[in-house]
Design brief:
Elements: H1 6-22, H2 33-166, H3 172-183
Helix pairs in contact: 2-3
């Protein structure tokens, strides 16, 4: 086909417009209605048959399978929730038991410590009382010894004073006799 010029193209377009103006748009032309309705019925029947026998059962099966899977998942989730609740209750129970044991162990340890401290205090008090009794006994002995030597010291002092102040020559025995008479 040879290339067309601008004028030939315009002529072709004008002829097409003129010939189209004579007839209606083919789908709206009443001469084609019967064949169009026939093919519409056949196409609808084939599509209905394919959808009802092949497509829709597959979609229904997928929906049913999904519904079953969701129900199974919900059942599994409720079982897991109940197991988790049981585990939490068991954990809280064991935690309470552990706290009670810890308190009893603490109370027992405190009682043991108090008993140990009381025992140690009693032992230390007994040792201190024994040392105090021993010290009082030594003090008593020293006092008796000092009181026993008091006469000797007084006599020696009296002899020294008499010799030094009065220039007297006094013996220890004489000074003791004088002191013994002064006590009575």
């Amino acid at each position: 086909m040879a290339p067309q010029t601008h004028s030939e193209t315009a002529e072709y377009a004008a002829d097409a417009a003129h010939s189209g103006a004579e007839g209606a748009f083919p789908p709206f032309d009443p001469t084609y209605f019967a064949s169009q309705i026939f093919w519409l019925a056949i196409t609808f029947g084939v599509l209905y048959f394919l959808l009802s026998r092949w497509v829709l059962p597959r979609i229904g099966g997928a929906i049913e399978e999904r519904r079953d899977r969701i129900a199974d998942d919900l059942d599994a989730a409720s079982q897991m929730k109940s197991q988790a609740d049981d585990a939490v209750k068991q954990y809280e129970r064991s935690l309470a038991d552990a706290r009670a044991r810890a308190q009893s162990v603490g109370a027992e340890a405190k009682a043991d410590a108090d008993a140990s401290i009381s025992e140690e205090m009693s032992r230390v008090d007994a040792e201190l009382q024994a040392e105090q009794d021993e010290a009082e006994a030594r003090i008593g002995e020293l006092r008796q010894k000092a009181l026993g030597e008091l006469d000797t010291i007084a006599a020696t002092t009296a002899v020294a004073v008499a010799q030094h102040l009065a220039g007297l020559d006094v013996t220890d025995d004489e000074a003791r006799k004088v002191l013994a008479g002064a006590k009575e």
